[in-house]
Amino acid sequence: MLAILFASPRLPYTLLMVRVATIQMVSTADVESNLLQAKKLILQAANEGAEFAVLPEYFPIISDDESDKLGIMEEFGDGPIQTFLAESAVSHEIWLMAGSLPIRTNDPSHVASSCLLYNPSGECVARYDKMHLFDVCVDKDEGEAYNESNTITPGREVVVAKTSFATIGLSICYDLRFPELYRELVSKGATIITVPSAFTYSTGKRHWEMFLRARAVENLCYVVGSNQGGNNTQNRATWGHSMIIDPWGNILCSLEQGPGVACAELDLARVDELRRSFPALQHRVLGL
Predict the structure, then answer these.
(1) How far apart are CA 142 and CA 140, in angstroms?
(2) Residue 8 lies in a domain
(3) How many CB atoms lie within 10 A of CB 143?
(4) CATH number of the domain that 152 lies in?
(5) Does residue 2 sit within a domain?
């Protein structure tokens, strides 16, 4: 359960601690297998004392055929994947973030890539639709290119969720390259930022850790990066290295490749203390 420790009069702030788990998966085109993998990892996170667990982007499915997402899309609030998530949150009494899953839109040829947050009662309390879509050529020579906009409709709303322990700012994968989104999340009160991802192997080894640490330091907040980590398909490999970063840029825990769980204790009062003693956010000149 959430631990609240009151400091002695000598200390400048009250310690508010929460144990957070970043979950790394190697999802494939087999939805049933992916949900079984997620079930085992959520159980592991709960057994390690996590009160909040974050699944990676595309945890229910990763396929070489992007249109496969259309075959498993669900109405928001209904469907077997969402039922699985709600039941998992209830059975383990945790806050559970579903990195992304395909949610139906008004366009039958497109889905929303939606990150959902469930409370311990199994209620979906926040939904964020991925805003920045990964339409890039990673390696022209190798023919490694992605066009998410072919099957995904971008979101338009910046989303934060107030929980029993913190205000969480929601983002997904490619969003990480757009710092203005994270400034907006912080302006809305975020002290924890989540980045469920499926960072490619080639871009991840160059940029993943750098971006996560930059977003943490520049916003003086905790960042939870939950990534896919392995050979998801014959043609798609993801970087892994899921990690949790503190507001000073330190890596609190991390994984390398393969499915797994890494946990860290977050001292949430530390965010307020750092923002008071090192008020960089108040010193901004542009973008106010």
Answers:
(1) 6
(2) no
(3) 9
(4) 3.60.110.10
(5) no
Alpha carbon of 258 to those of 25, 117, 230, 241, 255: distances in Å? Answer: 7, 24, 6, 9, 8
CA neighbours within 13 Å on the CB side: how many for 37?
23
Supply the range of the domain harboring residue 161.
16-276
The pLDDT tens digits for 223-238 are 999 999 999 999 999 9
pLDDT tens-place string over residues 59-103: 999 999 989 999 999 999 999 999 999 999 999 999 999 999 999
Catalytic residues: 57, 130, 173
If one counts the domains in the chain, the total is: 1
Alpha helices in the chain (DSSP H): 31-47, 68-72, 80-92, 179-187, 201-219, 269-277
CA–CA dist 221, 266 (Å, integer): 10
Q: Give the tokens for residue 177.
A: 């390259």
User: What pTM was computed for the model?
Assistant: 0.93
The rounded distance, in Å, linking the Cα atoms of 133 and 185 is 18
